[in-house]
């Protein structure tokens, strides 16, 4: 094995583990929301703020962390970001235990800061690998990082819920935080020293034009809205599916219901295939097909039969990730004022939608039951599809 291949292999493995650490923490409360709502005596939408505050923090953190990484180095910034995220993740668990009054509100504040710190990983990971490996290897490395984020999101959900059902939601989240710390240690040991990084401190006057230049493009606006609307609907479905399955007539124990999150693997399967189809044909029809598949899956969850609900969850997940894989790549290719800034704006919309509609899905659940949440998501996905069909060009 050459020195260069060893360097690339270490980076690839390190990025996989930091992807797991980031997204396991971000989504660990999702399977625990019914427990959080019951113990903290809050409504479903209030409980979902444990997800929404963190994703809002991440959305707001992506752009600042990208400039910190430019100035001080990708690896240094990522280590600082993920280490601080683990610390505030621990504080989020401790707040309700230490403070009898306002403990839940303090936990939400800690989750927001945790999310802001987590923003340093998606902001810098791809730039780090693109600087350190050849373009050919970078494609595989990017896929490995994405698989780590997917596995991390899944792990955070299916580990926290069974543990939380037996020992309480705080222990469930704490278990995931400990797992994340172990992954960070692996990253620290394996991530190679940057060999091709050149520090660049951007002047304040340069920041706004670099960001707003991309907003002059109708294509990019549509892609940013694509992430905002579909990710918002996707997270709303997963946030409140546990409430639906744990209530009559299904009354499934939370630890068992959490295994519906294995449907997430459908996205791991569909996203690379969507990318290959988009390269072979064109992006627009593949993106539209992904949205339509998502809409079909969301609609299937209205059928009052457990097997059909699970099938619908698999279908909507596959469709969402297929469309997301196409849109996230398209924003870089269509950028008019810098690819990094275009990707940051997409992430801002993507996680901003998660935060807003991940909360409003609970309001719809409260007002109209599961059908209310589903109808909201159908509206979001339908609007995204209509905009894409009308505005996006044939590439």
Structure commentary:
The protein is mainly α and 395 residues long. It has two domains: 1-202, Growth Hormone, Chain: A; 206-394, Up-down Bundle (Growth Hormone, Chain: A), CATH 1.20.1250.20. The chain is built from 16 helices and no strands. The protein has helices at 3-27, 33-40, 44-47, 49-72, 74-98, 103-118, 120-132, 135-167, 169-190, 204-212, 218-246, 254-257, 265-280, 283-300, 306-333, 339-391. The termini are far apart.
Summarize the structure.
With 395 residues, the chain is mainly α.
Query: What is the share of helical residues?
Result: over 70%
Give me the strand/helix succession: HHHHHHHHHHHHHHHH
Number of domains: 2
Structural class: mainly alpha
Rounded radius of gyration (Å): 20 Å
Q: Name the beta content range.
A: under 5%
CATH class of the largest domain: Mainly Alpha
- Arithmetic mean of pLDDT: 87
Secondary structure tally: strands: 0
Assigned CATH superfamily of the largest domain: MFS general substrate transporter like domains
The total of helices stands at 16
CATH fold description of the largest domain: Growth Hormone, Chain: A
Main β-sheet, in a few words? Answer: none
Distance between the termini: 40 Å
CATH architecture classification of the largest domain: Up-down Bundle
Low-pLDDT ranges: none
Membrane topology: Multi-pass membrane protein
Family: Belongs to the major facilitator superfamily.
GO molecular function: transmembrane transporter activity
GO cellular component, one term: plasma membrane
